[in-house]
Amino acid sequence: MDGPDVTFSALVAARLLLAYAPLPEALNHDHQLSSPLTSYSRLREGIYLFDHGIDPYSGGSFRHSPLLLSLFSTVLPLTPYTSPVLWTAADAVAAWALVRIWRLRTGAKLTSRDGQVAAIYLLNPYIFLPSLALSSSSIENALALLSLMFACRGRASASLLTLACLVHLSLPSVLLLLPTLLLLITRPVSRLALPRPFGADLKRTLPLLAEFVGYGVLLTAASTLVCGNWNWAEKTWGASLTLPDLTPNPGLWWYFFTEMFDHFRPFFLMVFSVHLLIYVVPICIKFQHDILYAAFTLIGVLALFKPYPTLSDPGLFLSMFSLFPEIYPYLRHPIVTALIHLHASLLLPLFNSLWLRQGTGNANFFYASTLVFGVGNGAALLDAIWAGLRIAIGNVEDGYEVVQE
């Protein structure tokens, strides 16, 4: 067994042992680790109602996809013994996919950094804490990385089916559709230092888009068949568009709409939703020479502006930095960004406890910490965009400075 394989196996084993510790019980209801759309306790409640012949979507608490409902109520029943294994397996698959993407990007079958790439993902506290809380965001991360990995390998059907499942679980992930289609007709090799116009025929994406739509229709039909009605669409996809549950989370939406007058709500819901979409085409155009980097950047946009984020969303973005070591010398403020994240990681649980457990604070306390967290995520995203553009200029002579790319 090679060194990277030993490292990977040891990390997965340690992660599994940690999953069976008493700690996860205290994390299941933490608003930073799971949202109304990814909560394990709500998933268990929905499965219980479904098993007893009650429509879980008739209330206002269950917002998981019918795919998870049918999967975990039949094929993979959730128990205190099986759940840690399933979530550890999701993390292991995600880390394996990340390593495979790294190998495909470098064109090597085995590299010395394989173990580091896996460790950066599996040891990232933004990743393993939501997984210990059994948040379904861990499954979403695995699907996102699998879709990109299959796209890098040119396996269109597997990539599009995985992406369709991801979009079915988390509607905002549709932002990854365009870079995935473009990645399927190009190669994932690094071209950041030598940018060139996009050379592939865009018409080749049309049958791929039709295939993705076909998978989406099949999953929608299967979900409707499981539930027997269309209530699930409003409770799952509709939640990402209308924000009916204002449970606190690390995102930027919940407090804004808590304080808003009802007659302004439809307009700003439209603004916030469309705001996510406006980044897709410009980023894909700007990084047309390296579509994998465009996908990475859009994952950062999702981590920052998603309606119901958890810590695993920025965790995925930060972990993917390991795929692009060539940009490290061109990052402008990595230390400042890391310190902001450290500051936010201390403030979030502290202010959450002061407000919701101790009762000595209010919503402003926790929202202030989420703003700090948003600044950290935004700083990382902007630095990644800058470095991805700056690398094309190369070294600058003494006395000169790059002001704008």
From TrEMBL:
Predominant cellular place of this UniProt entry's protein: endoplasmic reticulum
Sorted UniProt keywords: Endoplasmic reticulum, GPI-anchor biosynthesis, Membrane, Transmembrane, Transmembrane helix
GO biological process, one term: GPI anchor biosynthetic process
InterPro entries in the record: PIG-U (IPR009600)
UniProt signal peptide: none
GO cellular component terms attached to this protein's record: GPI-anchor transamidase complex
Pathway membership: Glycolipid biosynthesis; glycosylphosphatidylinositol-anchor biosynthesis
UniProt topology in membrane: Multi-pass membrane protein
Compartment list: Endoplasmic reticulum membrane
Pfam family, one: PIG-U
Transmembrane intervals: 81-99, 120-139, 159-185, 206-232, 252-279, 291-310, 330-351, 363-389
Domain of life of the organism encoding this protein: Eukaryota
Similarity comment: family membership: Belongs to the PIGU family.
Protein name: PIG-U-domain-containing protein
Organism per entry: Lentinus brumalis
Record lineage: Eukaryota, Fungi, Dikarya, Basidiomycota, Agaricomycotina
